[in-house]
């Protein structure tokens, strides 16, 4: 290794090199090396120095090290700006669910992360916006009809919620062709089969009809 690197007094597997205001760090664990620093040029120089003296394979950006998964983020992103814009978007989508019932469950799920959204939540909310933009004429249409027949539909998605593995019940009730009631909700307990999930969804629909 380059002689300009200094071995740490507190950890013999840790080596550092300082140049002006920048630093590069090399941490060694058996035959794995973690190289990081405040200057991309110093990091490249350290890699080049190691390649000249040892047979080293560069695995690229850090993903796992000694059993720890590492996820990076861009320091140019302001999380407060993302949270504010996310909250405003979800508030508008919640208002829109009055006439667009098909987005109720998606918006309800996204609203649970109003105060701590992640990039995946922001991406999911933008997918809802793209769906609305591509299908602007869909919505709740109140039609006039002399025939007053009550029709109901129900369904369930077995074990769809990834955290609790609870199923989702859904139903809608129509008076002739007019949608008058609808609901999507996680079931209270875990259904051990798709049949049980369907029966619970049917029960919820029957209660609403009654």
From TrEMBL:
<dbReference type="InterPro" id="IPR043502">
    <property type="entry name" value="DNA/RNA_pol_sf"/>
</dbReference>
<feature type="domain" description="Reverse transcriptase Ty1/copia-type">
    <location>
        <begin position="1"/>
        <end position="73"/>
    </location>
</feature>
<protein>
    <submittedName>
        <fullName>Uncharacterized mitochondrial protein AtMg00810-like</fullName>
    </submittedName>
</protein>
<dbReference type="Pfam" id="PF07727">
    <property type="entry name" value="RVT_2"/>
</dbReference>
<dbReference type="InterPro" id="IPR013103">
    <property type="entry name" value="RVT_2"/>
</dbReference>
């Amino acid at each position: 290794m380059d002689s300009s690197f200094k071995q740490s007094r507190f950890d013999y597997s840790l080596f550092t090199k300082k140049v002006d205001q920048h630093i590069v760090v090399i941490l060694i664990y058996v035959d794995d090396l973690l190289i990081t620093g405040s200057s991309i040029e110093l990091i490249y120089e350290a890699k080049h120095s190691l390649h000249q003296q040892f047979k080293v394979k560069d695995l690229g950006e850090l993903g796992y090290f000694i059993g720890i998964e590492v996820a990076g983020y861009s320091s140019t992103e302001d999380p407060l700006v993302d949270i504010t814009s996310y909250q405003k978007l979800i508030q508008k989508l919640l208002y829109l669910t009055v006439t667009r019932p098909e987005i109720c469950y998606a918006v309800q799920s996204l609203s649970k992360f109003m105060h701590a959204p992640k990039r995946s939540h922001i991406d999911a909310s933008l997918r809802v916006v793209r769906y609305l933009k591509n299908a602007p004429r869909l919505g709740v249409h109140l039609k006039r009809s002399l025939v007053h027949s009550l029709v109901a539909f129900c369904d369930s998605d077995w074990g769809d919620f990834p955290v609790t593995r609870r199923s989702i019940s859904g139903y809608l009730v129509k008076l002739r062709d007019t949608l008058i009631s609808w609901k999507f909700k996680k079931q209270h307990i875990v259904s051990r089969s798709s049949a049980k999930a369907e029966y619970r969804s049917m029960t919820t629909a029957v209660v609403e009809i009654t």
